[in-house]
């Protein structure tokens, strides 16, 4: 393990905006102290909560937090070295409406109460070509999110994968979910500028390679 990674892991322990699964015995029955209490006990407001799943370095989480100060944003990722950058930037820029959790997405129920989340962003996830069930917008994962979602919760997918884009369009039809919008190529379409203004590390890389970036938003019933 590189020296920089060890230093980042050490600094992660000092961030007030980072919560790591390793600090709690959740599988042994310990209750995460902010579960169901994020707004009252951490953000100190009644604003809606948006999650970014697989947030990496937190570019989208922090970009949204900057643009929507009347909402709360929480980035989720299992890699501490990635989260370090997002936590660091949020701390430097004093973004009080942004936080991060280091955990597996399958374990979200340990960290959030019933109906606590108003919006979910899934940004550039692994398309899992051979394992549809493991796609973060598959019915299997939607069932994981379902208990923590507030009624009317909007889910967004932003992806460079044509396979994943088409999979979700078809799944929305099959599951009778509600399609809100779909844009096959956001950079060559007159769509919401928000979809273009915030770019992740990987998004910039794929744009340099002339990849097509797509977006879908939907609700489950």
Task: Characterise this structure.
32% of the residues lie in helices and 22% in strands. It is α/β, with parallel strands linked by helices and 221 residues long. The protein has a single domain, classed as Vaccinia Virus protein VP39 (Rossmann fold, 3-Layer(aba) Sandwich), CATH 3.40.50. Strands 1-4-3-2-5-6-8-7 form an 8-stranded mixed beta sheet, sandwiched between helices. The termini are far apart.
Q: What order do the SSEs take from the amino end to the carboxyl end, as H and E?
A: HEHEHEHEEHEHEHHE
CATH hierarchy class name: Alpha Beta
Q: Biggest β-sheet: count, sense, barrel?
A: 8 strands, mixed
Uncertain regions spanning at least 5 consecutive residues: none
Distance between the termini: 45 Å
Shape: globular
Range of strand content: 15-25%
Individual helix count: 8
Q: Judging by the overall fold, what is the CATH architecture?
A: 3-Layer(aba) Sandwich
Number of strands: 8
Q: The CATH topology, please?
A: Rossmann fold
Strand order of the largest sheet: 1-4-3-2-5-6-8-7
Which structural class matches the secondary elements? alpha/beta
- Helix amount: 25-40%
**How many domains is the backbone divided into?**
1
What is the H level of CATH, i.e. the homologous superfamily? Vaccinia Virus protein VP39
The rounded Rg comes to 17 Å
Mean pLDDT: 95
Secondary-structure blueprint:
Elements (H helix, E strand, L loop, with lengths): L2 H10 L5 E3 L17 H6 L5 E5 L5 H9 L4 E6 L2 H13 L5 E5 L14 E7 L15 H7 L3 E11 L2 H14 L2 E6 L10 H4 L3 H8 L5 E6 L2
Parallel strand pairs: 1-4, 2-3, 2-5, 3-4, 5-6
Antiparallel strand pairs: 6-8, 7-8
Helix pairs in contact: 1-4
């Amino acid at each position: 393990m590189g020296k920089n990674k060890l230093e980042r892991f050490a600094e992660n322990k000092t961030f007030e905006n980072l919560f790591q699964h390793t600090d709690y015995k959740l599988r042994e029955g310990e209750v995460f102290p902010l579960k169901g209490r994020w707004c009252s006990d951490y953000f100190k407001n009644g604003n809606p909560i948006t999650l970014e799943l697989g947030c990496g370095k937190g570019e989208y989480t922090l970009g949204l937090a900057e643009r929507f100060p009347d909402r709360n944003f929480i980035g989720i990722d299992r890699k501490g070295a990635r989260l370090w950058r997002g936590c660091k930037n949020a701390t430097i820029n004093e973004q009080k409406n942004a936080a991060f959790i280091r955990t597996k997405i399958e374990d979200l129920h340990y960290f959030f109460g019933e109906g606590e989340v108003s919006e979910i962003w899934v940004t550039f996830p692994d398309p899992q070509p051979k394992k549809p069930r493991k796609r973060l917008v598959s019915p299997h994962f939607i069932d994981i999110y379902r208990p923590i979602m507030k009624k009317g919760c909007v889910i967004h997918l932003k992806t460079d994968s044509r396979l994943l884009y088409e999979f979700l369009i078809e799944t929305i039809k099959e599951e009778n979910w509600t399609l809100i919008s779909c844009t096959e190529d956001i950079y060559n379409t007159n769509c919401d500028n928000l979809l273009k203004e915030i770019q992740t590390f990987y998004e910039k890389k794929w744009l340099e390679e002339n990849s097509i970036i797509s977006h879908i938003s939907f609700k489950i019933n």
